[in-house]
Amino acid sequence: MDPKLTEVTQLFARFKAAYSRNDLDVCANLLSQLKVLLTKFPSLPPSFQQTPNAVEELKLARDIYEHAVVLSVKMEDQDAFERDFCQLKPYYMDTCGIIPPSPEEYPILGLNLLRLLVQNRIAEFHTELELLPAKALDNLCIKHAVELEQSFMEGAYNRVLSARQAVPHETYVYFMDLLAKTVRDEIAGCSEKGYDYLSISDAKEMFMFSSDQELQQYITEEHPEWDVKNGSVFFQKAKESQPCKEIPAAPVINQTLGYARELERIV
Amino acid sequence: MAAVATVSSASGILAMLQEPAEELKLHALASLNSLVHLFYPEISTSIPTIESLYEDEEFDQRQLAALVVSKVFYYLGELNDSLSYALGAGPLFDVSEDSDYAHALLAKALDEYASFKIRASKATEGEETVDPRLETIVERMLEKCILDGKYQQAMGMAVECRRLDKLEEAIVQCDNIHGALSYCINLSHQYVSHREYRCEVLRRLVKIYQTLPHPDYLSICQCLMFLGEPETVANILDTLLSGSKDDALLAYQIAFDLVENENQAFLLNVRNRLDSQTPGQSNPDNASVLSDNQTGNDGTTSTEAAGDVQMGDDTTTASGNAHTVDPKEVEHADRLAKIKAILSGEKSIQLTLQFLYSHNRSDLLILKTIKQAVEMRNSVCHSATICSNAIMHAGTTVDTFLRENLEWLSRATNWAKFSATAGLGVIHRGHLQQGRALMAPYLPQSGAVGGGSPYSEGGALYALGLIHANHGEGIKQFLRESLRNTSAEVIQHGACLGLGLASLGTADEEVYEDIKNVLYTDSAVAGEAAGIGMGLLMVGTASEKASEMLTYAHDTQHEKIIRGLSLGIALTVYGREEEADTLIEQMTRDQDPILRYGGMYALALAYRGTANNKAIHQLLHFAVSDVSDDVRRTAVMSLGFVLYNEPEQTPRIVSLLSESYNPHVRYGAALAVGISCAGTGLSDAISLLEPLTSDVVDFVRQGALIAMAMVMIQTNESFDSRVGAFRRQLEKIILDKHEDTMSKMGAILASGILDAGGRNVTIKLLSRNKHDKLTAVIGLAVFSQFWYWYPLLYFISLAFSPTAIVGLNSDLKVPKFEFLSHAKPSLFEYPKPTTQQTTTSAVKLPTAILSTYAKAKSRAKKDAESKANQEKAMDSESKVNQEKTTEDTSGSTSGKASKTQEKDADAMQVDATTEKKAPEPEPTFQILANPARVVPAQEKFIKFIEGSRYVPVKPAPSGFILLRDTQPTEAEELVLTDAPATVAASTGNTAAATGQQGSGSSAMAVDDEPQPPQPFEYTS
């Protein structure tokens, strides 16, 4: 066996051990070493050289990146998640026919969809979705994310929040928690547009907080521009609404006539 | 498993860029660098990230980041950004990479660098400094080209980027230095538009030339001439003259080549310097020492110092050596005398005259037809016919037609008489020794009040100028006196023109004062000529006299004077390019349309033959926007002057203008094509002119006919069938009673131009070395003024140059020598002579019976004079064919008549006994004998026969060629030149020598000389 491959395999074994021990710092450390080592393999994307060890190397690399994605969820690091997922993705998309599909593929793809939903990047969510084959939609993990998105779009926020109980994979919990906040932001955005003010009790119900305190904290953290007085929350609708821009009719007409005149002159 | 995987997205790699570990970033950059051509759209969104990597001082692969960014920008089409990052990439940017990216960026870098350099040369020093990284890239590229042996590429880039040091490096390292140098000279003339810089390049080239062990003196001297350094040329010539016989031959060849460029002032300068060096050189003991000196040092100043020392010695030794006749000294003196004769132009003029005289093939029947067709009372057509005759016989000294038709000629009165007399000058052009004697009957008689009319006297002075054009040392004094002694404005007119022509470009102060005095008399007729004369005198000097002339042009009321002056001003800036811009600006902005019109000429002449984009742009602008038709016409016509070095371009550029609604613009377009494509027979040009020859406006037809003749000159029907059609069209116009006078005049002139100089000259504006021929360009410029003043028509004779190969031995004599023309003879032969029924001249039945029939017929129709002419023609032809048979020298008419038919291929078979080599109706080659007519299109077929006795010094296919004799011990066989050598002074006033005309052709070579025209009396 190739010595490099052996080295990586051994290191990866130590990483898995640390991972099962939930020793996240050691994991992160080992992981970055692993990634550097991986760059030495010529068979990995983007070069995809056909070496005798290609299949093993690809499998190993995919495994490492899958663990890296999950690790980033555990460490609650969204940037790292995105990075690792992007690097993992070529193994899913471009290696068909070289290595067998991974069992972790759909859960991780679903996780990514969920992340996009949490970050409110709906356009990218749909782009990713389109890239998936039709039969992938039947997968539980993907289906979960798709349903969430539908509820989210319909405004059935309660369904979104209740879906937390029915996660298909334990790693999803982290994102489901974050999703609640995303939903709340959405509601806040709508309320701002829809109402001049709301009574605190209404607002509490609307934002799905259990106590006034939580509401108060949310407002000071996220929307310090809102006023809370006389038992009501005042939105700053008036401030935001900008005067409608006037259509510059006269200049446009003038310019068009000018062009017409010039055209006539040229001939 | 065999499926080859490819990456579908760069997002993975981009994500890797965000990793904290350096190695990963590096790996990502390397991957991106190789994939950028596939994923640049994706990568473009991450450019800020990569840029920040590049700007990160700590990051050790900043250059790789820069390279990636540069590539992305390249694919996005942002070449400027791309280049600036590629510069940041330093050595990683691989100049030898064979990719679109590398090619595009290198081109961009070169452009950028070149424009920097150009700006830097214009701006004051230190204002802008070139990015050193850019410089490094360009240098790396140049070095690579030199290493790869792509020397021409390297030279081109070096010239473009103004890196003369690199240019020198490339040339020196090149395996074929001579080839490289001549390539560079070519390059600098064709592509370096900035005059000063071109001089710099040439200076550098000369420097390189001089370091070579075997310098190519021919090319050096050409460069030096352009640079205007007569003393260096004189030194080189002097060295060569004191060398071996071959060196002397080379010196002669150089001198001939210099003469061809017609730069009178320069040639005089060289000659005078040779003079001043003679005392030193005549001392045989020191000559070799001195020549060693000269080859040793680099040329210019130190040799003069040496010369001075020699002079000091000489004063003491010369007297002692005087009586001992040293053969070496005699030889040197002899050589010096010869080279001075060449430099003065006399030798080449004399040889040209001999050639044109002996090879004259003009067709008097054409003139006769014209004469008969033209109404006597129509003076325009009458003088056009006289002019046409003059052009047809330009430089041949054959004035048979005039002498035959004295009665008819005498109908020319007033200015027509002026023109007619001037026409004699054209016919006798270059007849330097006898010029004055020939014109004597018409010249103003000093003291005595001759009965001559002022018109013929003025015309005679103008004629003298034409005879001595650009070689007027001998006649200048006489012309000045004539100018001073007269107050008749017609004579002043002639004298001013004559003086201007004779002292062309010499900038002689005294002559200038004389002409200026005439100008200040404020007489319209004399003033116009004075303006032109001043311009001729000051051609190409860009002297401040121009502003003086401009001021007077503003002061005077006479349009004629303004016009003369504005043309004169234009002449002064001849060839000065950017230097002339201020003056051009001043003239083109003037309120007076005549001055703007002069401005057009100034543009044309300052940028003559440069195809300068700015000038073309300006001219086109004026051609469509000026309010005055005169200015527009001239602007279009001027395009012809600017573009004559690239004749293929002109028809394309003026094609739209030739369809303009404005007849003046169409006229200008026709002449522009005529001027720039003159003598080329270019198919595009003919196609453009063809519709214009049947334009609805008469003067457009006139211009188109003249232009067409200029284009088709020396092209025969078998080369382009449209020539025949054109000849028939001319005939039709001339014979048509209802044709407008203007177009008739055009047709008459066109017939003259088509057969100019006895069918042995062409219009050439560029010499063989691609230098502009000053006299020719000036000639055409003034010629184009005939729109206002018909006598100026005769200026076209300045543009004629003989199409001949003349081989010369070391005695500057013409030895027997043969060479090969590797093409069908019919392609380049003379047009067939017209027959009596000219309208059906095209049909000739190919039978032997016709041949005899034609003989009889031609015998019957010939009168005594035309017979004599044909004898001459025949005689020359017999020399061409190298016939040794003597039967035809008997002078029997029938024998000669049969020989006139030799050109007819079928008749040839009948008369095959006289032809040594005519086995096939159409051989694929032709042996030509020295001196021979070689038309420009034929030049590429000329080959010198190997193993013949004489070897050319320079293998040029035309002009004067010095021949090295490989068997110097054997007696040389010279070609007898039946030249118009001397004219007895007494014959001037005697009656026409009728007896001489009939004298036997065998003796013709020795004593048959053309007679001066009989002084015809005007019945006024």
UniProtKB/TrEMBL annotation, chain A:
Residues 79-251 form the PCI domain. InterPro entries: 26S_Psome_Rpn12, CSN8_PSD8_EIF3K, PCI_dom. One of its GO terms (cellular component) is proteasome regulatory particle, lid subcomplex. GO terms for biological process: proteasome-mediated ubiquitin-dependent protein catabolic process. Keywords: Proteasome. PROSITE patterns: PCI. PANTHER family: 26S PROTEASOME NON-ATPASE REGULATORY SUBUNIT 8. Belongs to the proteasome subunit S14 family. This is PCI domain-containing protein.
UniProtKB/TrEMBL annotation, chain B:
One of its GO terms (cellular component) is nucleus. Residues 1011-1020 have a biased composition (Pro residues). One of its GO terms (biological process) is proteasome-mediated ubiquitin-dependent protein catabolic process. It holds the Pfam family RPN2_N. Residues 276-329, 860-922, 986-1020 are annotated as: Disordered. The keyword Ion transport does not apply. Keywords: Acetylation, Isopeptide bond, Phosphoprotein, Proteasome, Repeat, Ubl conjugation. Residues 803-975 form the 26S proteasome regulatory subunit RPN2 C-terminal domain. Residues 861-887 have a biased composition (Basic and acidic residues). Acts as a regulatory subunit of the 26 proteasome which is involved in the ATP-dependent degradation of ubiquitinated proteins. Acts as a regulatory subunit of the 26S proteasome which is involved in the ATP-dependent degradation of ubiquitinated proteins. Component of the 19S regulatory particle (RP/PA700) base subcomplex of the 26S proteasome. The 26S proteasome is composed of a core protease (CP), known as the 20S proteasome, capped at one or both ends by the 19S regulatory particle (RP/PA700). The RP/PA700 complex is composed of at least 17 different subunits in two subcomplexes, the base and the lid, which form the portions proximal and distal to the 20S proteolytic core, respectively. PANTHER family: 26S PROTEASOME NON-ATPASE REGULATORY SUBUNIT (PTHR10943), 26S PROTEASOME NON-ATPASE REGULATORY SUBUNIT 1 (PTHR10943:SF2). Belongs to the proteasome subunit S1 family. This is 26S proteasome non-ATPase regulatory subunit 1 homolog. The gene is LOC100828654.
